[in-house]
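pinging the channel bc i need a second pair of eyes. not urgent but kinda urgent?? the chain im working w is below, pasted from the shared doc
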Amino acid sequence: MTPAPPYSIETRGLNLWYGQFQALKNINLGIRQGQIAALIGPSGCGKTTLLRCLNRINERYGYVRTTGEIRILGQDIQAPDVSLPELRKAVGMVFQRPNPMPISIYENAIFGLRTHTPRRQLRKSDLDEAVEKALREVNLWDALKDRLRARATGLQLADQQKLCIARLLPLKPEVILMDEPCSALDSAATQAVEELMLALAGRYTILVVTHNMAQARRVSNECAFMLMGEMVEFGRTENLFLTPKDSRTADYVEGRYG
């Protein structure tokens, strides 16, 4: 048997330029399977840029250039034979604001599945099963099972964000990327999404960008501090916050700048 790769997410010497501006500088990162890892740092430090490298969303912009290596589950995702649709099935993305489609809850839950699966292979019973399983995983089934034909945009924001996570799950991703998933939510909704993240940990590797350092401490096992495009420090969350190795990390987590 081929041994499992040591990391779900790994970058080696990753650099990225937007035109002439270098946004990422020699990023080395390794996140183990089933962990929740957080990216923290001041605005503009490269957190979201790094996140979007991991499913190659940055390539939508013609002026972006990267060097270095990115591996997901041991595979070089920049290899010429990599299928972007297959990569984005394995590496799901959750954005800052909930973005459910203006269609039913049911159709939202299977939107990705319909997009990536030939129609002739989709049976109604399989779709029903996928919807129930996905909504159960995000703790929405009991609340929504009698409202599946209602428009998803009518849900509360916390439930909209949970539904956006549920939309990924029928595709059986290995990695879930979250770009400030609670920035548009109030404290109660934030707590609900954080509890969901913790419930999903172990089954999925989660990398979350957050400006909320308290959130990073609550939900993550590992944490990376970025500054001006550089990975200043990466390690166990409690170590990074309590005994940081770099003075710049200490300044940031203690609120002296940023």
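so Residues 9 and 72 are 5 Å apart (CA to CA). and The chain is about 35% helix and 25% strand. — does that match what u expected or am i reading it wrong
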